[in-house]
Amino acid sequence: MTAPARLTCTDARGACGVCHGRAGVSAGARSAPAPPFGCNHPCPPTVEHNTDLTRSAYRVRPSAVRPHSVRPRSPHLTTVAPTPTKPLLYLDVDGVLNPVCPHPGSGYTRHLLLRSEVLLSATHGEWLRELAEVYELAWASTWEAWANQCIAPLLGLPPLPWVACGGFNSGARDGDFAPIVRHAAGRPFAWLDDLIPPRLLRRYADRSDVLLLPVEPGQGLRRRHVDRLLSRPPRAAHLSPGPPGSRPSEPAPSPRRPG
């Protein structure tokens, strides 16, 4: 989802290299990491990968990007067919895999992608590959198809299905959740995002087929999120069978609490 235009570091000690003037970032704040593209964005500019030891640049070939970026508003333009045997796991990038202000020494590497600074961790790649044993991973981010070109290779992930979230409207009632529900098409799913509305958290708190996990954007994905996803993945509601030709019954409602 789209990050705020400017977020202030909460590290009063000034130890955060991202927010306190090192690596070319202005002191006191970090610019928004969201990729600068729109509906008709051309082929990506030079993508630079910066580490402490190396600095290289390459240009993504237009032919490698155009099939995924044509009509990016459609949630049906995915590169991998759904696997009904697994629940879906929708991944945000900014605020989840690309935190705003991680703790110094937490293993993040700076990358310049589409002219924006992005922080990524190899540990996240290991966790996501572990989650891929249980879930079918999918992008639900303003990066859209560009996540497969820029983010996935750096985390050791294959191209993933993606949901069109670039048209996010902060005034919309359900925001990015509505296209996720349409894409899931009734399958159980989990959603990792830093801007999940509290109203949705309350609505789906007791659902067995939907798991919404909010992530603190300052710290990003943590091991506790992974453990929660692996311990109790969302599952389809089981409907009791009826006589031949009859319609399946609805799941029994949860008993009310006394008082």
Automatic annotation (TrEMBL):
Biased composition, class Pro residues, residue ranges: 241-259
Region (Disordered): 230-259
Protein name: Secreted protein
